[in-house]
Specification:
Length: 597
């Protein structure tokens, strides 16, 4: 069945159309449709922050059904941070609501003359003034629109950070879920689009409901006793924190020294014991991985995620529980990507240490200064704060900082150290969105028992054998999950769905029979288009890591003396992908995949 798209030009109107049959056949939907549209319909050399850039939201064919872990969405664009392809992901219910309005893909183009929000309600598509929402945080914006329009709406919004032009601003779904990694929020705000509201509707029918429930029950039963699933169920993505500490993957002072794992664990333990626990996971999901803490005064704060802890507690050195809770809350409400914010703050603090920046505004471990910085950059100023630029652009502005700036291709690196985790290091170096390993969700090095369905051989976190092949598997499976609409956290962070179960679920919901080879090809096409887009449009598409991680081994801790052998890893990675020695997909490989330049 052809994919249904709605294109909204914020200055001219909207139109519905069906995408060519080949998009559904070769890319399935979701992120696959986004990759195809950006490659085929974005005009060459379109500036990321321009009316002509496309901002595309999509949920895969599983979204909108009664199946759990299928309500999220992917959003893609030309990234203002890298110039290449940019993606963000969020769970929740907004993606399901979009498909229940008979929309597989929502394309936003143009720029509104004034702040507005988009309302989608069946056949009704309207732009309404958002002047009364300007300055409101993402939680308040979602609550206000729900009150105005009725409680059965799902709201995406940008916060004050996006309004102020922060390059790593995030979109927030339903006032609950940050869209990560960074970049898409800056594009949405640049278009003066404050929010997108979709009215939820009835569940979509499926081809074989009994078979769907059988597959979901298999996934549920696996997760009930699985140690990784139990850890994530208890404390969210921070369930991987003990392994990161044990392996020496947390480093401090912008990765110059091992972090104090005992202190970090103590800080998080104290945070987790505070207040009442409120799960805000997706409906019916057996792995509710988002958790709020309610204080005695009735306020709620997000339980810090793995990336937030690694970034602010380890990399920046903040061990005050109150400060960490406040930072988590600020990131959600202001609409700021935590990994990118922590990288920018750590970079600026080290630049001040080295005398590369004269004015001293930050110190290691100073939570109050970090909170003040987040608040400051989220307010419109006559002279733009350098912290609002993102670490890639900051590096260009601070002479002599390239060796230690935690970025690849312009996108911030989350704070798990690639000297401790070889596969994650390779993922950071090669990801087409920039230096964020969440493109591939290759968390296996932090999992006690990686799933048996990963390709052999397995090897230790600091070893190289098998890492290129297993990263490629993660890339393709992550792309297939995003194309289908199944949650990448449940599917990869927790490893709770097998490829065979995903194939069976797609068949049960859509009636489309696909094989294992089909699934692999769908994932490979998406990854290849992402690669082609970034190689064509990014100002720096080199696969590398900052010199700090390649040439400066730590002198103590579990990873002492070790740096990742990136050059050898890249050689194998390119060869296994069928790319040439420079990392470009070969004509023969493109022909096999049916991709034309």
């Amino acid at each position: 069945m052809p994919l249904r798209s709605l294109t909204v030009d914020l200055a001219r109107g909207h139109a519905r159309q069906l995408l060519p049959d080949e998009v559904e056949r070769d890319y399935l939907g979701g992120r696959g449709a986004i990759a195809w549209l950006l490659w085929h319909q974005l005009e060459p050399d379109t500036p990321p922050l321009s009316a002509d850039n496309l901002l595309i939201f999509a949920a895969g064919p599983l979204a909108g059904s009664a199946g759990f872990a299928t309500g999220g969405f992917t959003v893609g664009t030309r990234s203002p941070l890298t110039g290449g392809i940019g993606y963000g992901w969020a769970p929740g219910h907004w993606g399901a609501a979009l498909r229940r309005n008979n929309i597989d893909v929502l394309v936003i183009r143009g720029e509104a003359p004034d702040w507005c929000y988009l309302l989608i309600d069946g056949d009704t598509v309207r732009l309404r003034s958002a002047r009364h929402l300007v300055g409101r945080d993402t939680v308040a914006t979602a609550a206000t629109l729900a009150a105005e329009l009725g409680g059965n709406v799902r709201v995406l919004a940008v916060g004050p950070a996006g309004e102020a032009g922060v390059a790593y601003a995030s979109i927030v779904a339903e006032g609950l879920y940050l869209v990560e990694p960074a970049g898409t929020g800056a594009v949405m705000a640049d278009k003066k689009l404050k929010a997108i509201v979709v009215r939820d509707r009835a569940l979509l029918p499926v081809a074989d409901a009994a078979r769907m429930q059988t597959v979901l029950q298999s996934i549920r039963q696996r997760g009930e006793q699985h140690p990784t699933a139990n850890a994530i169920r208890a404390i969210g993505s921070a369930g991987l924190l003990p392994a990161a500490i044990k392996l020496g993957a947390l480093t401090s002072r912008d990765a110059r020294a091992p972090a104090d794992g005992v202190a970090i664990a103590r800080t998080f333990s104290e945070i987790a014991r505070r207040g009442g626990r409120l799960e805000r996971g997706c409906a019916e999901c057996p792995l509710p991985c988002y958790i709020d803490l309610r204080t005695k005064s009735g306020e709620t704060h997000p339980l810090p995620s793995l990336e937030l802890i690694a970034g602010f507690a380890a990399r920046v050195g903040i061990t005050d529980p109150d400060a960490m809770l406040a930072i988590a809350d600020r990131c959600l409400r202001l609409g700021i990507d935590p990994a990118a914010a922590a990288a920018a703050i750590a970079f600026m603090t080290e630049a001040q240490d080295e005398g590369l920046v004269r004015q001293r505004t930050l110190n290691w471990g100073d939570g109050a200064a970090v909170i003040a910085a987040l608040d400051r950059i989220s307010q419109r100023q006559e002279k733009r704060d350098i912290l609002s630029l993102g670490v890639g652009e900051m590096q260009e502005a601070v002479w002599g900082s390239a060796a230690f700036a935690p970025q690849v291709k312009g996108l911030a690196m989350p704070a798990l150290d690639p000297r401790a985790l070889t596969e994650i290091g390779l993922a950071m170096a090669t990801s087409p969105i920039g230096g964020d390993y969440r493109y591939a969700m290759a968390f296996e090095e932090l999992v006690a028992e990686p799933p048996a369905w990963l390709p052999p051989p397995a090897s230790g976190p600091r070893e190289s054998e098998g890492k290129a092949l297993r990263l490629i598997w993660h890339e393709r499976f992550a792309a297939a999950l995003d194309a289908s609409g199944f949650c990448r956290r449940l599917g990869l962070m927790a490893y709770q769905i097998t490829p065979g179960e995903l194939i069976a679920l797609i068949g049960a919901v859509t009636g489309r029979a696909i094989t294992g080879a089909d699934l692999v090809r769908i994932g490979e096409r998406i990854v290849t288009l992402d690669r082609l887009f970034t190689r064509r449009y990014a100002s720096n598409s080199q696969d590398t890591l900052p010199d700090r991680y390649l040439r400066e081994p730590l002198s103590s801790g579990p990873t002492a003396g070790h740096t990742p052998p990136l050059e050898a890893l890249l050689t194998e990675y390119y060869a296994r992908h069928g790319w040439d020695a420079r990392g470009d997909p070969t004509p023969a490989r493109l022909a096999e995949l049916g991709i034309t330049l």
